[in-house]
Amino acid sequence: MDYSAYKFLKVELHPTGVLLITMNRPEVLNACDNAGHQELAQIWLDFDQDPKAKVALITGAGRAFCAGGDMREKTTDEVANAKLVWRDAGTLVYNMINIRKPVVSAINGVAVGAGLAVALLADISIAADHARLIDGHTKLGVVAGDHAALIWPMLCGLARAKYYLLLCEEVTGKDAAAMGLVSRAVPAEALMETAWQVANRLANGSQWAIQGTKQALNSWLKNNISIFNESLALELASLLLPDMKEGQLAFAEKRAPQFPSAKIPN
Questions:
Q1: CB 124 within 8 A of CB 104
Q2: Helix H segments across the chain?
Q3: Which of the residues 49, 86, 111, 192 has the least number of beta carbons within 10 Å of its own beta carbon?
């Protein structure tokens, strides 16, 4: 398998059969532009079809896992941009759920947006204690539709999912492990060693047994995929509404947003 076309992702196949995938824009906390979103969606299919790769281990370069979408990327065609979000967000979730082989995430820092989706959709997620997990959609006036409505209630329960998703509350890696949002949390200095140990154990195990177990467990997600589809449709609609424009402007100006929908009518 040739991974040379990937730019946002640095892809390295190790002799043990572990495919190390690194989101590699450390100068912007690994924020991904439209091309990066496409790579995050496509890589799982290439990994699954690579006969030499047995396990994927994904992390971020530098001090972040992934800061989500690159807010500096401007577009004048809002409909075209919404279509890209709909396509890539949907493909990312479906591909991660449907591939046979296991994925391990090593969450080394902030994880937002598509990065958070990858972190939590991984079959085994390991976070540094200090890592910061943030689903920031509603703070931008956008519906949390790229993964959260599907998987957060299964991982940490509906009450906690509503609290963190509606309020955009930050969760540390340590707290995320305590509430079941990630598999484990470890001190930052032990993160990659722990993640490699897990990935190598999976690579050395029975591939039939591991892949079959993953397939059976992911039936929980597939049986509830209509929830994801609804959330993605609502996110798509919210991208075209005035609240989103105000959310983006407030983010750029580093101020609290004044959402039109929050104003009391005269």
A1: yes
A2: 34-49, 78-98, 113-121, 148-156, 158-167, 173-178, 191-204, 207-217, 219-222, 225-238, 242-253
A3: 49
Q: What is the pLDDT of residues 114-154, one digit of tens each?
A: 999 999 999 999 999 999 999 999 999 999 988 999 999 99
The residues facing 58 across adjacent strands are: 21, 105
For residue 256 the two structure tokens come to: 């609290």
User: Distance between CA 252 and CA 12 in Å, rounded?
Assistant: 35
Which tokens in the block code for residue 176? Answer: 């995320």
In angstroms, rounded to a whole number, what is the distance separating the alpha carbons of residues 248 and 90? 22
Whole-number Å distance between alpha carbons of 130 and 232? 30
CA dist 108 and 188 (Å) reads 7
Decide if 56 contacts 19 (C-beta within 8 A). Answer: yes
Domains, the chain, ordered by start: 9-238 (3.90.226.10)
SS3 track for 52-109: CCCEEEEEECCCCCEECECCCCCCCCHHHHHHHHHHHHHHHHHHHHHCCCCEEEEECC
Beta strands 111-112 and 66-67, pairing class:
parallel
Please tell me the pTM assigned to this model: 0.94
